[in-house]
Amino acid sequence: MLRLATLLILALIPLASPTAEALRILLTNDDGYEEPGIRAIHSALVKAGHDVYRIAPATQQSGAAASIASGGVRIKEGCF
Fold first, then answer.
1. Full-model pTM
2. Pair type for strands 24-28 and 51-55
3. Which distant-in-sequence residues (6+ apart) come within 8 Å of 80 by Cβ?
4. Which of 10, 37, 69, 70 is the most exposed place for a label (fewest CB within 10 A)?
5. 1, pLDDT greater than 60
């Protein structure tokens, strides 16, 4: 289910000026790369003409900032 904040963002994207210059946007979250909210926002921003980079963990990582990790980083490209 999409969160209220995600729904609000999706509702406001079409209100952006169509004559405005496209933005380069870094879109991120801690809920995971394939989470429905980040996917929906990414899609809407791309459709609005923006250059969007979606950066997020492969899996749900909410609260992980308080943990210690030593496994390295995996990069998964082109998974739009």
1. 0.63
2. parallel
3. 42, 54
4. 70
5. no
